[in-house]
Amino acid sequence: MAEKSIVHLVNLRDFGGVERLILDYVINGKKHNWVIINTANSLNKRFHEHANSIIFCNRAIQSAAIQIPSFIRKKALWNKIKKINPSHVVIWNQIVSLEDKPESIKAIYYDHGAVWELEKNKKTIDFFKKINGCICVSQASKKVLENKFEHHCDISVMLNKTNVVSRDSIADDKKKTFTIGCAARLSPLKALGLLPLIAEETALQGFNFNFIIAGTGEEESALASLIDKKNLKKSIKTIGFLNNLNDFYKHIDIYISTSAHETCSLSCIEAMSFGIPIISANIDGQPEIISNGHTGFCIAPTMSMEDYCKKTGMSLPFQKDIYYPENDTIGPPRLLNPKDAADKIIEIYLHGVDDYKKKSRHRAKELFDDKTFEENLIETVRNF
What we know:
The chain is α/β, with parallel strands linked by helices. Helices cover about 35% and strands about 15% of the residues.
């Protein structure tokens, strides 16, 4: 008798970490019989070629954007799922009503960072009491979930993975331009206003490095204004959105994550797979990726949100509490101090990057190779 299918309930309007996992290990996977239900009424262009195999949760007619009335959507969702008759429903990074879920179907919550932002209310409390299992993308994610919500199920941790690639070690050459890169959505959360402040600090210490920022988003104009205001157009280059980041990683020496909150950064994992050392704040899941002092540095964050806004003129990055692994506490968010980040960039530069590159590639191969990710995911789901 064939195994029952697994339904993946996911919002496919945008394209970020969750959606990449769905595309790479569910749609393009080969290890299980899957059904995808999209909880958004639109579909990101990266999924257009697969549109015929994706069910729209709230559409009255699958081929049209006309939605069913909101008051019957909860029941309609579970009616759709009952007809599929799966063994499990994996609910990706969102909360849905489990009121109409049949006992025969197990509901598994997959957290990819949503728990940081979820409010503690009747809906979320009831949800976590009723789920049959939980997968968290980092130990930090598990810590935050356990701190906020009562649950009666096991929690498994599955770190993000990537298609690990390596590149030849590049000998450190003090005569070439040393480049620091960041690839991210230009959104408040990513706190990219830190990069001009860091570039300013390195220049003050006599080091004129290049900085490259890949990405687009709502803070694009504010970031450009800050770069212009500080006369850093020659040293900071913004290159927009890139479909393929391979060339980007191959042309940088250090990857920097300025984000105010980072569950388990895929971009940091990818950068390490190219032998790029990482600089990041020591927050959330970052030290689960970065080996401090070996594959880069996790720096204790000391800059307040208010100070950041004052110095950059940019939006408040994050207002929820975050996890501080160094002392195992949860508290108000803080950001990388630009001087601390600049000091570590200079330290890597002066030391030479070869040793960091070698250790970064090795760690990526040991911990983040995606060869068995789909198999492990399905085994974890079915074991709940």
